[in-house]
């Protein structure tokens, strides 16, 4: 299998990024509400897949992906340049803590979440997976600083237990929550959340990825991701 992951409207070269294409990023990119967003920020962009999905789904004229890893930033920059939306996409080598641009309508992140486990010997992979370089408090501060007022929103995906931790510390207000289970009748393993600066009615939903039959996905998951995966 090569290093290129092909979607219906774009391809992602992954050789320059330690964290490859995974279900989490694609779920978030397909689920996040990007309607009306003119400026979008992807924190920890990696290969750039979430930013590319936003370019496909939205009318935003400025989409920037930032990453603390220079190699990942170069990978995203290459993928942006090869896409149909190169003029709307920008990759920057920056940590969330040091990023100074503001007034984003929508911020997204598939952030690091391992807090207590042993660090991977690979430093770059550890940065992508562990909160040593970006704690939840630091992420929250960066997001609140960069969001536009009053309509800005933040969408992220985390393991369910870690999401509950993040929601307990943020000053942002929950607006949407989707708990994701791998198979029917099993506890959720991932949670997607959309938060905003202002409180409002909260929408709760669930998503199951697989049916009980190996290799057969639910209609719900197929519908969510059908504009991206070649297999759908």
Biggest pleated-sheet summary:
8 strands, mixed
How many domain regions? Answer: 1
Q: Find the CATH superfamily.
A: Vaccinia Virus protein VP39
Any idea what the radius of gyration is? 17 Å
Share in helix: 25-40%
Hey, roughly how much beta strand do the residues contain?
15-25%
Question: Please, how many helices?
Answer: 7
Spatial strand order of the main sheet: 5-4-3-6-7-9-8-10
Outline, from the CA principal axes?
globular
State the name of the first-level CATH class.
Answer: Alpha Beta
Second rung of CATH, namely the architecture: 3-Layer(aba) Sandwich
Mean pLDDT: 91
Structural category: alpha/beta
Explain the overall architecture:
The protein is of the alpha/beta class and 232 residues long. The protein has one domain (4-225): Rossmann fold (3-Layer(aba) Sandwich), CATH 3.40.50. It contains 7 helices and 10 strands. It has an 8-stranded mixed β-sheet. The chain has a two-stranded antiparallel sheet with strand order 1-2. It is globular and about 45 Å long. The chain starts with a strand and ends in a 7-residue tail after the last helix. Mean pLDDT is 91; it is low at 114-131.
